[in-house]
Each structure stands twice: as structure tokens, then as C-alpha cells.
Design brief:
single chain, mainly alpha
């Protein structure tokens, strides 16, 4: 049965973390949450692919983590607050992830935010 159209389905470049998206990304998000444990962070750093194999991720989810493709992780069901745990494991700030997802260099992104952010008109 096809799912019903939602008012927010056609917001360009936006992936709303609703119940459907949550189910899609459950295993990806549980992997991310595992990085709360220092021992798991060390294991992940030592062998990322091997550690990811312990989780029931889709091949696309696994590749997005290996590539640190933050926006793809979100598209594939990741929750930004969970996926950030990977960035923190890498020593990145939340602003680094935001810059990457917006297609901007870090310094350019920070200056844009200091200047008041993006125009809502695009």
C-alpha cells in the first residue's frame, strides 16, 4: 500500500525525521549511539568497516558512514543528533557537519552564520 503524501514531502533538500524515517534509520542511529561508549569509539577508529559490519546497516548506510557523507546519512534515516556522534568521534564540531551538508567551506559557513544565516528565499 503506498504511503500518503505528507505536506513536507516536497521541501527541497529536507529530510524530516518522522516515524517512517526513524524506522528506516534505526540501525544506523543505534550504531551512532554505540559511540557514546569510549571502548566502542576506539574499536570503530581501529577498524571502521569491521565495526560497521556488526550492525545491520544497508550497504548505502555503511558507505555513507565510511565516506562521512553527512547529508546522505540523513537521507538514509540518520538523525542529525545521532550522526553527529561520528563527527565528534572524528574531532569535528557540529558546525563542521553543517558546513559540509550545505556545500560550503567551514570558514565560509561560519561567516554566513555570523552574517545572519541563509535567506529563507534561497
Amino acid at each position: 500500500m503506498p504511503r500518503a503524501h505528507r505536506d513536507y514531502d516536497d521541501i527541497p533538500g529536507t529530510y524530516v525525521f518522522d516515524a517512517e524515517h526513524s524506522r528506516k534509520g534505526y540501525n544506523l542511529n543505534m550504531f551512532c549511539m554505540s559511540l557514546n561508549d569510549p571502548a566502542n569509539r576506539e574499536e570503530f577508529r581501529a577498524d571502521e568497516g569491521g565495526y560497521l559490519d556488526k550492525w545491520d546497516l544497508t550497504p548505502e548506510q555503511k558507505q555513507s558512514v565510511l565516506d562521512r557523507d553527512w547529508l546522505e546519512m540523513i537521507r538514509l534515516g540518520g538523525n542529525i543528533y545521532y550522526t553527529y556522534k561520528i563527527g565528534a568521534c572524528d574531532g569535528l564540531t557540529f558546525s563542521h557537519l553543517c558546513a559540509s551538508m550545505s556545500g560550503m567551506e567551514y570558514d565560509q559557513y561560519l561567516q554566513m552564520m555570523v552574517n545572519g544565516g541563509r535567506s529563507p528565499n534561497g
